[in-house]
Amino acid sequence: MIHHERKYDMKQAPIISRRLIAAVLLVGLFSVPAFGATDEAEAEVEVEIPTTLQPYNVRVFVAIDDNVEFQLNFRKRILAELRDRCDGYWGRMCTVSVEEFPRLFPATATTLDRLAITHESPEVANCDKAFFLTLQADGGGYLVAGKCWDATTRETSEVISSQVFRRSDIADRLFGLLSDLFEPIVEIADFDEKQVTLQIRAGEFLPPDPSQAPLKTGRLLTPFYRFITREGDVRKIQEIPWTYLVVTDVDRATANCSIVSGLRVPLTTRRRRLIEVLAQGVRPKFDSTRLKFVSQQFTDHPMFGVTVSIVPEKSETTAAESTEESTGEEQAQVAKPEPVTMMTDRAGTVTISGDGSNKPVMLAVHSGKSALARVPLVPGLEAEAEIQLPDDSVRLNVEGQLAVLEAGVIDAVAKRAVLMARARSAIKANDWKSVDEFLERMDKISGPSRMQTELTIIRERGVSAAMARKDVSAKRRIERLCSKTSELIETYLSLDKINQFREETAELRKALGAK
User: Fold this and answer.
1) How do beta strands 243-251 and 254-261 pair?
2) Is domain 185-281 given the CATH code 2.40.10 in the classification?
3) Which of 13, 159, 289, 437 has its CA 20 to 30 A from that of 132?
4) Cα separation of 66 and 63, whole Å?
5) Exposed e or buried b for every residue in 92-104, given b needs 16+ CB within 10 A?
6) Which DSSP string corresponds to 339-382?
7) 56-64 and 94-100: which strand pairing?
8) How far apart are CA 155 and CA 128, in angstroms?
């Protein structure tokens, strides 16, 4: 078959057809926007969604052990039940996807602990939180375990696990792990010295189950900075050390917190566009925390023999009991509970046990009478922590030399007192030869001028050593210690008593006509 091509000539078309085509072209010309107009219109329409209206994008990966009783239908049912519980408990607060995770093999808590997750892992792409769960047969029951990766902090939690004895409880226990691992992210909107105001992520989407509310009164959070590049990538995440936020009240998406910190200025007042000031909920997961104290100058040098005191906070109950009707002694017993004091061992460590309140306690660290640090700590939040203290070796060296010098002062005072007593006894016995001997021996005892000279040498050496380390605090402490020792020397080694005794002895000698 031969196909013929038919050419359409506009000149041969009817007049009405040519007019119709021209009209269509004109309509199309005016209806097409100018180049770039679409992009500008879309840019104008784009509005940044507030943090409080941003739901969490959550991905849940469940690795089920290759066991004969975990058949395909059972696996599908577990995933479906877990998805239903996420939707039922969290509601619009989270957009959840649940899928099986065959990559983890064998599906055990041990392999889950070894699973490395980073921000480049494909499983965590385009999500705010990724949960990894395992289900395995364990004796007559089942063992479920899980851990969470957070996109905001780029950190992976510790693995937690739970025992299940009935198949019907597996989905509930898996969601229980999700609930225990879920830590809210909040934005620090405003703050002053005592209070911080937070904007809660997805806070306007109240969960159907009130127990799943992201923040409650008494909840503990730790603040941090996120440094963002101009392209929107995370450049650095910086934790704010020894600083905690404790929720005092919550109103939907807004919460107020008290701030507990060992820093003078824990939060910066300067806000920059590429720096986000955020906080994350935390919970103690250990029974105690092992604290190690090291030197700031030499981090491999443990600070042993340091006194650590847990200063108890005055509770509302204690304050209520301390009324005006109570006696002064009763008020002192109620208002000032005894601090728990311990001393670091040879490794520079102490163990702080938790009391179950999940509240920060204040630690006062001293070296002798010198205060080195005052920091808050939540026992059990970390298994181990390290605190760097100013190197107090210079002050300790000076303090040791001053102790020797003060011992010399005490010895000199005691010898003077003994010689004066023996001289008085000799005067009563009219033994003036012995009196002269005792007075001569008193003159040989170190006086205040010699002691002050030794003190000056100790002070100058100590101050020079402190300034060589640029330790202004140690310099002030050394000068304060030396000033107290100087007052001690002038008070107890004053020559006024010796001169007065000499004058009395001379008058008695003259009155008795002795030579």
Assistant:
1) antiparallel
2) yes
3) 289
4) 9
5) ebbbbebeebeeb
6) PEEEE--TTSEEEEE--SS---EEEEEEETTEEEEEEEE-TTSS
7) parallel
8) 12
How far are the Cα atoms of 368, 410, 459 from residue 405, in angstroms, in the given order?
18, 9, 12
The long-range contacts involving 467-475, CB below 8 angstroms and separated by at least 24 positions, are 469/297, 469/391, 469/394, 471/390, 471/391, 471/394, 473/390, 474/390, 474/392, 474/394, 474/395
Non-local (6+) Cβ contacts of 290 within 8 A are 349, 350, 351, 383, 384, 385
Cα-based angle 242, 247, 253 (whole degrees, multiple of 5): 125
Strands 361-367 and 254-261: unpaired
DSSP 8-state class, residue 102: T
Give the residues across from 434 on adjacent strands. Answer: none
Query: What token pair was written down for 187?
Result: 């934005």
Q: Please provide the size of the chain in residues.
A: 515
Query: Other CB atoms closer than 10 Å to residue 326's CB: what's the count?
Result: 14
Judged by DSSP in three states, 99 sits in strand
Per-residue pLDDT of the chain (515 residues; tens, 9 = 90+): 334 344 434 444 444 444 544 444 444 444 444 444 445 444 444 567 899 999 999 999 999 998 888 999 999 999 999 999 999 999 999 999 999 999 999 999 999 999 999 999 999 999 999 999 999 999 889 999 999 999 999 999 999 999 999 999 999 999 999 999 999 999 999 988 789 999 999 999 999 999 999 999 999 999 999 999 988 888 999 999 999 999 999 999 999 999 999 988 888 766 677 899 999 999 998 899 999 999 887 788 898 889 999 987 764 434 444 444 445 555 545 556 678 899 999 999 999 998 878 889 999 999 877 888 999 999 999 999 999 988 777 888 898 899 999 999 999 889 888 988 888 888 888 888 888 888 888 888 878 888 899 999 999 999 998 888 888 888 888 999 999 999 999 888 888 888 888 888 888 888 777 65
Phi and psi, residue 461, nearest 5°: -65, -45
Closest by CA to 352, choosing from 315, 380, 314, is 380
Domain 288-315+330-389: homologous superfamily in CATH: Immunoglobulins (2.60.40.10)
Handedness of CA 80, 120, 214, 253 (dihedral sign): negative
Of 493, 514, 494, which Cα lies nearest the Cα of 505? 514
Q: Where are the domains of the chain?
A: 51-181, 185-281, 288-315+330-389, 393-512
Positive or negative, the CA dihedral 93, 99, 103, 104 is: positive
Beta bridge partners of 294: 302, 388
Token reading at 372: 């080195």
Angle (nearest 5°) at CA 262 between 259 and 265:
70
170 touches 164 (CB < 8 A): yes
> Hey, do 51-181 and 185-281 end up sharing a CATH topology, with the first three levels equal?
no
Question: Which fold, 51-181?
Answer: Rossmann fold (3.40.50)
